[in-house]
Amino acid sequence: MTPPRFELRLAPSTANVAALLDALEEFAAEAALPGAITGRLILLAEELAANVVMHGAGAGYFALSGEAGAGGLRLVFEDDGPAFDPLAGPPADAGAALEARAVGGMGLHLIQTLARDARYERSAGRNRLSFRLGAE
After folding, report:
1. Who's near 113: CB < 8 A, 6+ residues apart?
2. Using one digit for the tens of pLDDT, what is the confidence trace for 33-91?
3. Which residues contact 111 (CB under 8 A, 6 or more apart)?
4. Which domains does the chain have, with CATH numbers?
5. What is residue 90's DSSP assignment?
6. 120 near 128, Cβ under 8 Å?
7. 79 near 59, Cβ under 8 Å?
């Protein structure tokens, strides 16, 4: 039996972030992913795609592909925006009082915390983040 696969490439827009999330919910249901993995998948996909929409000036697309298997869900997020490594930023102070926190950075904190075996590379004008969810 072939493992369930997901592949979607979209132009960066807020409407397409929503379209990505809708498609991921369908994939998660078809692949019978556990609720915890589905929640992490949706959260990370939204954060990554929204970052391209809000900060990826000149980006022509964002794409997510993945495969569900016994080792969890293996994913690759790619975009052609400016170089940006979401794993390289300083960790957010999630324990600080809300009014004491710097604006921004919590999305990066989520990526750095929830994505397993995460690797970033910049190649041929593209950002590529590979990571795994599940099977902790």
Report:
1. none
2. 999 999 999 999 999 999 999 999 999 999 999 999 887 899 999 999 999 998 887 66
3. 44, 47, 48, 86, 87, 118, 129
4. 5-133 (3.30.565.10)
5. P
6. yes
7. yes
Name the burial class of residue 11, with classes exposed (0-12), middle (13-18) and buried (19+) by CB atoms within 10 angstroms of its CB: exposed
Q: Is the pTM of this model over 0.90?
A: no
- Tokens coding 94: 């999630």
**Residue at 100: amino acid letter:** A
Residue 77 to residue 131: CA distance in whole angstroms: 9
Lookup result for tokens 């690759």:
76
Q: Rounded distance, CA 34 to CA 66, Å?
A: 16
